[in-house]
Amino acid sequence: MYIKTNIPAYGGKLYHSLRIYERETIIEGTSTREIYRIDVLDTCTPEELARSAMHSLAGHIYNGISTSELCKILKDKFGVLEQYCCDIIQQLKIEMDLYCPDRQHLYYVESGCSSTTPG
After folding, report:
1. Closest by Cα among 42, 49, 39, 35 to 19
2. How many CB atoms lie within 10 A of CB 29?
3. Is residue 119 part of a domain?
4. How many domains does the chain have?
5. Could you tell me the residue range of the domain that residue 76 belongs to?
6. Selection from 60, 69, 76 nearest residue 2 by Cα
7. Is the pLDDT of residue 39 over 70?
8. Within a domain: 97
9. pTM of the predicted model, to two decimals?
10. pLDDT higher than 80, residue 42
11. Mean pLDDT, range 50-74, rounded to an integer
12. Beta strands, E only, the chain
């Protein structure tokens, strides 16, 4: 699972991939859980996370994908928490030359220009 932190000394945000260990105890039908260990597996900038996601998502992103579907993929494949999906999608838009005219679907920016020359 990735969490986001603001680092004033760094001057920006960092994402941390965490592994959380928890213990569940059931006594007389009552369940309690406690976290007994948290490991930081990786730390990266939003740009690095977006680039990593971009390479892994190459087969999953298509022209017209909905932002909600992309958020679901980010949660399922990368463990990105829902509240950070918008930040990552914004960075993916930059890295992958995507735009979102209706605020719901992502499209690739066409790089070709069509110009007609009078003949």
Report:
1. 39
2. 5
3. no
4. 1
5. 2-26+33-108
6. 76
7. yes
8. yes
9. 0.63
10. yes
11. 85
12. 2-7, 12-27, 30-44, 65-66, 98-99, 105-108
Taking the C-alpha atoms of residue 35 and residue 37, their distance in angstroms, rounded to an integer, is: 6
117 within some domain = no
- The domain spanning residue 67 has which CATH number? 1.10.10
**Number of Cβ atoms within 10 Å of the Cβ of 70:** 21
| pLDDT confidence bin for 59, thresholds 50/70/90 | confident
CB neighbourhood size of 96 (10 A): 17
Spatial separation of the C-alpha atoms in residues 5 and 88, rounded to whole Å: 14
Asked whether residue 12 is domain-assigned, the answer is: yes
Kindly report which listed range (30-34, 35-39, 57-61, 86-90) carries the lowest average pLDDT score.
57-61
- 32-54 burial, b if ≥16 CB within 10 A, otherwise e? eeeeeeeeeeeeeebeebbbebe
**With 70 as the cut, is the pLDDT of residue 116 above it?**
no
Nearest-angstrom CA–CA distance, 42 and 31: 31
Decide if pLDDT at 69 tops 80: yes
